[in-house]
Amino acid sequence: MAPHALEPNGAIHGSHHTAAGDVKTDPFTVDSPNVVYTDKDIKTRYTYHTTSVSQGANGNYIAKPKETVYDFKIERQVGKVGMMLVGWGGNNGSTVTAGIIANRRGLVWQTRQGPQAANYYGSVVMGSTMKLGTEAKTGKEINIPFHDVLPMVHPNDLVIGGWDISGMNLAKAMDRAGVLEPTLKDMVKKEMVNMKPLPSPYYPDFIAANQGDRADNVLEGSKACMAHVEKIRKDIRYVPCV
Ligand SMILES: NC(=O)c1ccc[n+]([C@@H]2O[C@H](COP(=O)([O-])OP(=O)(O)OC[C@H]3O[C@@H](n4cnc5c(N)ncnc54)[C@H](O)[C@@H]3O)[C@@H](O)[C@H]2O)c1
Q1: Do the beta carbons of residue 44 and residue 35 sit within 8 Å?
Q2: Hey, whose CA ends up nearest to atom 3 of ligand 1?
């Protein structure tokens, strides 16, 4: 535990208490005068060094070191996070939705190669690590999971929604995409059949011509007076929970 993380009264700042009263220790803390932990947040001062280049009167270059100071504040308590996808009923939207449901429910399904359990190996945040530094004593590289770097939402806890110019429900959209194994699709279908994308603005001159056939879930009105923008703003304020 970093020395500065200790309160004068001995309380540990680098840890938080769960509802059950257990203490959950942070995977790591930073020992620097530029990083301050409180129960609520992590405050960080970061100095970004760049080089500003200008040209002198006789054509020579003058390089001048530049410092920009940033103050970051990160809340330690992760709130409820909504993810709204534009084109929710597409290959990506339907596949990521099924993938999150499969992980949330810990599903295992049969494939030609044998049973397959849901995992997040394809996710940069969930499946990769970041080099934290080198252990002073041993010279060993220490890598930590990317999702432990800062307090962040677990994808299983995302509230999913979105828009699509095609009104097909997500179960049918998943069939249309043809990405997932039929055994997995059968397990998530019941939940996904109730997911229907919100209507979306459709401007044919902006969208590829081959999208026209599926445009049956289109926002009425025009883009005049920001009417569509206002509707999208309203959608974001009220996310139908999934
Ligand atoms: N699938 C991939 O492997 C991949 C890889 C890299 C990048 N991408 C990009 O990601 C995006 C989505 O890919 P995809 O494979 O899911 O494509 P997709 O064609 O299957 O899905 C796109 C979805 O967007 C919807 N759409 C079109 N216009 C819309 C609008 N105005 N408002 C709301 N929805 C609208 C369509 O109805 C469709 O369901 C594309 O831009 C694609 O180029 C895809």
Answers
A1: yes
A2: 92
Fold of the domain built from segment(s) 82-111+150-237: Rossmann fold (3.40.50)
Closest Cα to atom 39 of ligand 1: 90
Beta bridge partners of 159: 82
User: Which residue in this structure is represented by tokens 């099924």?
Assistant: 98
Is residue 196's pLDDT more than 70? yes
CA distance 38 to 62: 43
Q: How far apart are CA 88 and CA 90, in angstroms?
A: 6
pLDDT digits (tens, 9 = 90+) for 28-65: 999 999 999 999 999 999 999 999 999 999 999 999 99
Residues in contact with ligand 1 (CB, 6 Å cut-off): 86-87, 89-93, 163-166, 200-202, 207, 211, 214
Pocket test for ligand 1, best of 85, 91, 203 (most atoms within 8 A of CB): 91
Q: Specify whether the CB–CB gap between 178 and 90 falls below 8 A.
A: no
Exposure b/e, 144-163, CB count within 10 A at least 16 = b: eebbeeeeebebeebebbbb
CA of 204 to the centre of ligand 1 (A): 15
Per-domain residue ranges of the chain? 35-75, 82-111+150-237
User: What is the pLDDT, as a whole number, of residue 7?
Assistant: 33
Question: Per the structure block, which two tokens stand in for 174?
Answer: 């998943």
Nearest-CA residue for atom 24 of ligand 1: 87
